[in-house]
Amino acid sequence: NLATLQGVTDKISSYVLGNDSDLPSGSDARSVSFWMKPTSSGLDPWGTMFAYGTATGSNGFIIMWNNTAANIVVSKYGSPAAANSSTISMNVWSHIVVTFDGSSTITYYLNGAADGTGTLASVDTTLSEYSVGNVPWLKDQHFHGAIDDLMVYTDVLSAAEVKRNYNAGKRSHR
Question: Global pTM?
Answer without folding.
Answer: 0.87
